[in-house]
Amino acid sequence: MVEDALAEAEARMSGAGRTLEDDLSGIRTGRASPALIERLQVDYYGTPTTLVQLATISAPEPRLLTIRPFDPGSLKDIERAILASDLGLTPNNDGKMIRLNIPALTEERRRDLVRHVHNRVEEAKVAVRNVRRDVHNDLREFEHEKLISEDELKRGEERLQKLTDVHIEKVSTIGRHKEAEVLEV
Q1: Residue 28 pLDDT greater than 70, yes or no
Q2: Which domains occur in the chain, in start order?
Q3: 70 to 29, 35, 159, 181: CA distances (angstroms)
Q4: Can you tell me the mean pLDDT for 62-73?
């Protein structure tokens, strides 16, 4: 019982860390990265579709992204999606591909991005703590229903807290790494 609950907690807490990494990969740093726009939603024939499903994205230069759609008819839709996003990038369309010049970040924009990173990290920590709370309640319920002993409950609570501490530290490390990446000039 306790092992199953802790295994579930481990999986859910790891999921919070992976989700944070995915979210942070879309935050712009000083150099061009296809991850910046891969998950951008494009209205493709009335269906929201991720950009990576519609086009080949590459970074031929440190400050340039190129997008070559599989269907040339989707160029305008992709352009519209980029302009509507909060990336602050202007697409250059030559009829076959879109070029995105990535300008250098200003100090003010870097501070805004760092604040955004901090908010995302805090959300991930809250998610990890919510998992701890849920599993802790499950353990108490098991003990209340006499499925586990009081000693097993105490050991389970201690292991759950250690697991939580490990995942909170992982989330913090991910956040510090991304913050350093954003602040790098």
Answers
A1: no
A2: 2-25+106-183 (1.10.132.20), 34-101 (3.30.1360.40)
A3: 27, 18, 50, 32
A4: 89
